[in-house]
Structures are given as structure tokens and as C-alpha cells.
Amino acid sequence: ARKSLVNVFQDGICHPKMAMVIDDRLKVWDDRDQPRVHVVPAFAPYYAPQAE
């Protein structure tokens, strides 16, 4: 099953059209929600050994 804003806002607190999604994967979202997905790079822990 794909992610859906309708499932996120089941209790009616916010209309799905008023939402913006920040995710690193566009294709996991329902087709009608994809225009509201702002794709960002996947999380990568910052590691700087010289800082220790």
C-alpha cells in the first residue's frame, strides 16, 4: 500500500490539500498526493573524524 494524506488526516483535522510532505521517496506516495511531496536527499549521518 502506498502512503496517503487521506490516511494521515483521518480525523479531519486538516484537509490533505493544505499539507506539504517532505520525503526522500516520491513513488511511495499515492498519485494524487505526489504534487504535494517535496523530495529531499535521504538522511545520511554526518561524520567528521577530524572533529573528535
Provide structural commentary.
By secondary structure, this protein is low in regular secondary structure. The chain has one domain (5-44). Helix content is 8%, strand content 12%. It is built from 1 helix and 2 strands; from the N terminus they run H-E-E. The chain has a two-stranded parallel sheet with strand order 1-2. The longest helix has 4 residues, at 5-8. The protein is elongated, with a radius of gyration of 15 Å. The termini are far apart.
What ranges have pLDDT less than 50 throughout 5 or more consecutive residues?
A: none
Query: What strand line-up does the widest sheet have?
Result: 1-2
Helices, by number, come to 1
Mean pLDDT reading: 88
Tell me the count of domains. Answer: 1
Strand content: 5-15%
List keywords for this structure.
RNA polymerase II CTD heptapeptide repeat phosphatase activity, Fcp1, nucleus, little secondary structure, protein-serine/threonine phosphatase, 1 helix, single chain, two-stranded parallel ribbon, 52 residues, hydrolase
